[in-house]
Design goal:
By secondary structure, the protein is an alpha+beta fold. Helices cover 38% and strands 20% of the residues. The strands form two sheets. Strands 1-5-6-10-9-8-7 form a seven-stranded mixed β-sheet, sandwiched between helices. A hairpin with a 2-residue loop joins strand 7 and strand 8 (253-262). The two termini are 73 Å apart.
């Protein structure tokens, strides 16, 4: 019996516990109810009565040795250093560090906000669900204007006493809300998402992003508008950018113009994207129509102002030379990885 105890003692002392798996194996082999130490205790009743006290002391010492070894291993494995070393398996293949990406639309929109903020413009936002009154009537749209047709506008409810509810077709209703709630001088930009019931193609989508600007003060002229747009274009597209202003018509501005830049793909030589013209439209602009100012409670005889609006998504296409707007809305991770934050 004594030889069996001493042999087991040497075996316990020699057992190496290097990790949690070894610890569990040690515990199951020696200290559980059906382990080897318990088996020796069960043999104690067959030992002569005169020798039992001495054998019992040896068994208690053996059990104490095993318990102390388990406690020491638990203490070692619970230390921060041990936990960190166990968490690293050097045999595993390395893992690449993940870097988040910023969507190109939000990236470009953020740059636009910074440019106009440096010019003194504040930022105004409004609801995407709008009243027909704010989206059309206040902006001098005649009752029979094509934009009111279901072909262009997503109407949510029609025939309500308070007016038709629709998904805004531009961010100009935010300008209306700003003019109704504030007295001139006013200098704001209105970024946001807009909706139009249009056919989806490489150049148009049913939902897109706009950024519009409004400046109302005394003695504001079209020359001020051109200076603002030229300054923005140079900062956004580079100092060598070329612009042209074409006369146009918008119900809410008079006079009105559309602004083009040289095509980013062909450099102005003419290609499929620019329809062989060498130019791409980036925004519409003009002087705020007197009727719009009157609708919002501003005297056009005292105040004047300009407004402009551009598609953020189209600017993204220009900046990064993307030839299909649908790529911006398909959530393809391969594309987003090209725009690291």
């Amino acid at each position: 019996m004594e030889e069996a105890i001493l042999s087991l003692q040497q075996e316990i002392n020699a057992f190496e516990i290097r990790n949690a798996r070894d610890l569990e194996a040690f515990r199951h082999a020696y200290t559980v109810r059906k382990g080897r130490i318990a088996a020796l205790f069960s043999q104690l009743k067959s030992v002569e009565a005169s020798r039992r006290p001495g054998i019992g002391q040896l068994l208690n010492a053996l059990k104490l040795t095993a318990d102390e070894k388990i406690e020491a291993a638990n203490a070692a494995f619970s230390s921060p250093t041990a936990r960190k070393s166990q968490a690293i398996d050097l045999t595993l293949p390395g893992r690449r560090e993940f870097s988040g990406s910023e969507h190109p639309v939000q990236k470009v929109l953020g740059e636009m906000k910074q440019i106009f903020h440096a010019m003194g413009f504040s930022i105004a936002t409004g609801p995407e669900l709008e009243l027909d009154r704010n989206n059309f009537d206040m902006l001098n749209f005649p009752p029979d204007h094509p934009a009111r047709d279901m072909q262009d506008t997503f109407f949510v409810t029609r025939g309500n006493p308070g007016g038709d509810v629709l998904l805004r077709t531009h961010t100009s209703p935010v300008q209306v809300r700003v003019m109704l709630d504030n007295k001139p001088p006013i200098r704001v930009i209105c970024p946001g998402k807009v909706y139009r019931n249009e056919a989806i193609s490489s150049r148009s989508y049913c939902v897109f992003h706009q950024l519009e600007g409004l400046y109302i003060d005394k003695n504001v002229s079209f020359a001020d508008l051109k200076a603002t747009i030229f300054s923005f274009a140079r900062q956004m597209f580079g100092t060598d950018v070329k612009l042209r202003f074409r006369p146009s018509f918008f119900p809410f501005t008079e006079p009105s113009a559309e602004v083009d830049v040289t095509c980013y793909l062909c450099g102005g030589k003419g290609c499929r994207v620019c329809k062989k013209s060498g130019w791409l439209e980036i925004m519409g602009c003009g002087m705020v129509h007197p009727n719009v100012m009157r609708n919002c409670g501003i005297d056009p005889e005292t105040w004047s102002g300009y407004a402009f609006g551009m598609g953020v998504d189209r600017t993204v296409l220009l900046r990064y030379k993307i030839d299909d707007i649908r790529l911006l809305f398909e959530n393809d991770a391969r594309m987003l990885r090209q725009f690291p934050a």
